[in-house]
Design a protein that fits this description.
Layout: E1 2-7, H1 15-29, E2 33-38, H2 53-56, H3 65-74, E3 77-83, H4 91-98, H5 101-109, E4 120-127, H6 136-148, E5 152-160, H7 174-185
Parallel strand pairs: 1-2, 1-3, 3-4, 4-5
Helix pairs in contact: 1-7
Length: 187
């Protein structure tokens, strides 16, 4: 089983990164193969709406997304992790998601089957505030992203009130919840 971790935070070893690493440890404990992508380290241009993808399912923009598309298609499980910036995922992560218009075109316009496997995904998010609707917009984005790439949204770990770098280590249950999310996702 291949599990792809997508780290959407620009802060290495911050709360989001630590939670994703813990979830990936849970995945590995179940014998699955992992790969982690740090989106902030990639060169990903935003979608320019050229719509060339409607012809053949491929984006005409040449950048690091060229290596990401196959990973998104081949993964059996995907964990997306992002801090919440203004009630949404980071712009780095959103650029990756928006560029999946090419995969959306394969599925919905060109009617191509993306995978024969049942693929599952989970979302990890960390927000500094404690607002009631803090995660609502991001959850919708991730659910529609997963739907476009043929991944079923099955789990989430949403942590409020955490902001300072590595502050998640002081949270009483967050890291163990992330570990369990990873284990559960591979079962």
């Amino acid at each position: 089983m291949k599990v792809l971790g997508i780290m959407g935070s620009p802060r290495i070893k911050g709360n989001t990164d630590l939670l994703l690493d813990e979830a990936l440890k849970g995945v590995q404990s179940q014998g699955a193969e992992i790969e982690k992508i740090i989106v902030d380290k990639l060169e990903i241009a935003p979608c320019k709406e050229y719509y060339a993808c409607l012809r053949d399912g491929n984006c005409v923009i040449r950048d690091d997304m060229d290596s990401i598309y196959p990973k998104l298609i081949e993964a059996d499980r995907i964990i997306v992790a992002s801090p919440i910036f203004f009630y949404g995922v980071t712009s780095q992560l959103k650029a990756l998601i928006d560029r999946c218009q090419a995969i959306w075109a394969r599925k919905y316009v060109l009617k191509q089957k993306l995978s024969d496997k049942e693929r599952k995904g989970a979302f990890i998010a960390v927000g500094a505030t404690k607002g009631k609707q803090l995660f609502d917009g991001s959850i919708l984005v991730i659910k529609y992203f997963f739907q476009a790439i043929d991944v079923k949204y099955v789990d989430e770990l949403l942590i409020r009130g955490v902001d300072k770098k590595a502050e998640i280590k002081e949270h009483p249950t967050a890291l163990s919840q992330a570990l369990e999310l990873g284990k559960k996702l591979t079962q």
